[in-house]
């Protein structure tokens, strides 16, 4: 199994409200000043966690220097992305692009992880994890930002008989995720039902959009309520996907009355579970989206 990247848990911070378009966050990143945090270090070769107390200087995070092999441009991109993730998603976890692809086996048929960065990652997924389907939730801008040669990855998937699918959703945007979940889960449910190999679901870091799709699938198709599906995944892969986006998508799928009460007016626990008839309705609507 691939390595899990290091993660940091912010105990307090000064954060502003989310931006409407994730692509606009870069110009505002350096305005944030974090006060303190705890670092949860995850071994690159195991699932063992170690909590380390850390401090911040007035100018920013005090960090040990990394390998000279990591370019300053790559470091800046990772720093920008992680700060954006914390402010936009209230997500305390970090993505370390320089450590390569990382992933977690959630069920025997489902893997959630970060973006494959090169064709060798596709070879690894095929040979080591029997992956037969890849569901990519990134927008074109995400892929370009990290300099990924997507076409070479798609071509390698074809050569190895892996079905590569895309269901883009905007990063750091719960509303975009909410609207995109039904089609993304439709693709995932179809892949798993085909039974030809494991399905690999990824976004950029595998901490927001991808786990949300996996949790929604487990909620709608695996007989779990939302809290059980959420805790099942996050206990294996520490992350912070938007539970509200999943609840909102469940509301949208389960109700067909044009005069229904708006989701925004419902209590926070609404649609954490569904009645049997609602679950069947959701499953039918999800399956009807195949091929769209």
Automatic annotation (TrEMBL):
<dbReference type="InterPro" id="IPR029021">
    <property type="entry name" value="Prot-tyrosine_phosphatase-like"/>
</dbReference>
<feature type="domain" description="Tyrosine specific protein phosphatases">
    <location>
        <begin position="179"/>
        <end position="238"/>
    </location>
</feature>
<dbReference type="InterPro" id="IPR000387">
    <property type="entry name" value="Tyr_Pase_dom"/>
</dbReference>
<dbReference type="GO" id="GO:0019203">
    <property type="term" value="F:carbohydrate phosphatase activity"/>
</dbReference>
<protein>
    <recommendedName>
        <fullName>Phosphoglucan phosphatase LSF2, chloroplastic</fullName>
    </recommendedName>
</protein>
<dbReference type="InterPro" id="IPR045204">
    <property type="entry name" value="DSP_laforin-like"/>
</dbReference>
<feature type="domain" description="Tyrosine-protein phosphatase">
    <location>
        <begin position="102"/>
        <end position="259"/>
    </location>
</feature>
<keyword id="KW-0904">Protein phosphatase</keyword>
<keyword id="KW-0378">Hydrolase</keyword>
<dbReference type="InterPro" id="IPR052832">
    <property type="entry name" value="Starch-Glucan_Phosphatase"/>
</dbReference>
<dbReference type="GO" id="GO:0004721">
    <property type="term" value="F:phosphoprotein phosphatase activity"/>
</dbReference>
<dbReference type="InterPro" id="IPR020422">
    <property type="entry name" value="TYR_PHOSPHATASE_DUAL_dom"/>
</dbReference>
<keyword id="KW-0119">Carbohydrate metabolism</keyword>
<dbReference type="Pfam" id="PF00782">
    <property type="entry name" value="DSPc"/>
</dbReference>
<dbReference type="GO" id="GO:0005737">
    <property type="term" value="C:cytoplasm"/>
</dbReference>
<dbReference type="InterPro" id="IPR000340">
    <property type="entry name" value="Dual-sp_phosphatase_cat-dom"/>
</dbReference>
<dbReference type="GO" id="GO:0044042">
    <property type="term" value="P:glucan metabolic process"/>
</dbReference>
């Amino acid at each position: 199994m691939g390595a899990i990247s290091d993660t940091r848990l912010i105990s307090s911070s000064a954060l502003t409200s989310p931006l409407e378009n994730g692509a606009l966050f870069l110009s505002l990143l350096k305005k944030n000043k974090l006060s303190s945090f705890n670092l949860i270090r995850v071994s690159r070769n195991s699932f063992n966690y170690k909590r380390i107390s850390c401090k911040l200087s007035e100018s920013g995070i005090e960090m040990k220097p990394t390998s000279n092999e990591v370019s300053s441009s790559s470091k800046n991109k990772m720093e920008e992305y992680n700060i954006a993730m914390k402010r936009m998603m209230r997500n305390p976890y970090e993505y370390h692009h320089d450590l390569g692809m990382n992933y977690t086996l959630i069920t025997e048929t489902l893997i959630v992880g970060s973006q494959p960065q090169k064709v060798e990652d596709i070879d690894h997924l095929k040979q080591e994890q029997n992956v037969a389907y890849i569901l990519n939730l990134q927008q074109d801008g995400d892929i370009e930002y990290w300099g990924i040669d997507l076409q070479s990855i798609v071509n390698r998937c074809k050569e190895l008989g892996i079905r590569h699918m895309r269901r883009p959703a905007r990063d750091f945007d719960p509303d975009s995720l909410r609207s995109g979940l039904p089609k993304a889960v439709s693709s995932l449910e179809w892949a798993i039902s085909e039974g030809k190999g494991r399905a690999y679901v990824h976004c950029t870091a595998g901490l927001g959009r991808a786990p949300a799709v996996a949790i929604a699938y487990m909620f709608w198709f695996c007989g779990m309520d939302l809290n059980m599906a959420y805790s099942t995944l996050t206990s294996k892969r520490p992350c912070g996907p938007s539970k509200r986006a999943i609840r909102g998508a469940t509301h949208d799928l389960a109700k067909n009355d044009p005069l229904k009460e708006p989701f925004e007016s419902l209590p926070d626990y609404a649609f954490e579970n569904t009645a049997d008839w609602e679950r069947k309705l959701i499953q039918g609507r999800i399956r009807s989206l195949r091929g769209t």
